[in-house]
Amino acid sequence: METIKSLNGLLAFLKVSEFRSFSVAARELKVSKAYLSKLIQNHENEVGQKLLHRTTRMVKLTLEGEKYFEVCAHALAKMSAAHHDLKANSETPRGLLRITAAGAFAEEVIAPLAARLAKQYPALTIEISFSERIVDLVAENFDLGIRVGQLEDSTLIAKRISTRREHLCATPEYLETRGTPKTPEDLRDHNCLKGATQDWWFYHKGGQNSQAVKGNFICNNARALLKATLAGVGICRLPTIYVKTYLESGELVPLLESYMPQEIPIWAIYPSKKNQSYNARLFLAELSAN
C-alpha cells in the first residue's frame, strides 16, 4: 500500500464489501459504478488475489476476500477511532468565555462551576459579569446569559437549566408593629423592600396578577435587601437560598405562601447553536450534569 491509488482501491473494496452492492457503494463514495469497478480490479491486480465474485444479481466475497475484509475493516475502525480521539483532544477549552448573570443561582451555581473549570483548564479564561439589566449578548459579545423568569420574545436560543422559588417574608417584630398581610392587596399598607422589579407578581386560582408595591428601601442587591429585612425595615421578596436559614430559625416569617409561584424557570440563553463556541458547549454540558 504505497500509493494513493492503493488506498482508493482499498476504500472501494471495503465499501462494496460492506453494502454487497456496487451501486450503493458508488452512491456512498459519490463516484460512478464504472470507476468503482476499475478501482477494485486494479486493487485485485496489486494484491494478486480475486477478492469479489460479481454477478448481475449479487456481490459475494471470495474466501481470501473475506479474510482481507476482516483485517482491513478492523484496521479502518482503529484509524477512525484514533482520528476521533485526536480531534477530541484538540478541542481543549481555551480562550475567553463571557457570561452575564445575576442573582443567587449565579452566585451559588454558575460562579463555583466557572471556578472549577478555570482550575481544570488553565488555558480557559471565564469572565462573569453580574448585572440586573437585560444584556444584549450579541452587541456586547457575551457567549452565555443566565436569566430568571419568563423570557421576552427573542431570536436567542434558550435552555431551561433549573428552577427557583421565591418567598415573601418579614421579621416577627415588623409584623407585630405593622400587622400581617392576608392578601397581595394588603401590601399597599406595608413597607416593601424592592429590587429591580417595581411590581410583584402573584398567582391565585390559576391566574397571575401584579401588585404595585412601595417602600423606602430600594436596592438591586439581594443580600442588602435581606439585611434590611432582618433589621425590621419591611417585607422582602427573595429566593429560597437567601432566606431558608432564617425561615427555619424563625427570624423571618413567610407571608402569602399560597399566592407565591411554586417554580420560576432559570434559563441559559445564547445567540446560536451553529456558531456556539466549544467553551460555551462545555459549560452548558457541565451545568446540565450538576
Characteristics of this structure?
single chain; 290 residues; alpha+beta; Arc Repressor Mutant, subunit A; D-Maltodextrin-Binding Protein, domain 2; five-stranded mixed sheet; three-stranded antiparallel sheet; 9 helices; 12 strands; 22% strand
Cα separation of the termini: 49 Å
What is the gyration radius calculated from CA atoms? 32 Å
- Poorly predicted regions: none
Structural class: alpha+beta
What does this protein look like?
There is one protein chain. With 290 residues, this protein is α+β, with helices and mostly antiparallel strands. It folds into three domains: 4-90, Winged helix-like DNA-binding domain superfamily/Winged helix DNA-binding domain (Arc Repressor Mutant, subunit A, Orthogonal Bundle); 95-164 and 265-289, Periplasmic binding protein-like II (D-Maltodextrin-Binding Protein, domain 2); 166-262, 3-Layer(aba) Sandwich (D-Maltodextrin-Binding Protein, domain 2). Helix content is 42%, strand content 22%. The protein contains nine helices and twelve strands. The chain has helices at residues 4-19, 22-29, 33-47, 63-90, 103-120, 172-178, 222-230, 240-249, 278-289; strands spanning 52-54, 59-61, 95-101, 124-130, 144-148, 157-164, 166-170, 199-204, 207-212, 236-239, 253-255, 264-270. The strands form four sheets. It has a five-stranded mixed sheet, with helices on one face. It has a three-stranded antiparallel sheet with strand order 10-7-11. Strand 3, helix 5 and strand 4 (124-130) form a beta-alpha-beta unit. Helix 1 (4-19) packs across helix 2 (22-29) and helix 1 (4-19) crosses helix 3 (33-47). The longest helix is centred in the N-terminal third of the chain and has 28 residues, at 63-90. The radius of gyration is 32 Å and the shape is elongated. The mean pLDDT is 87.
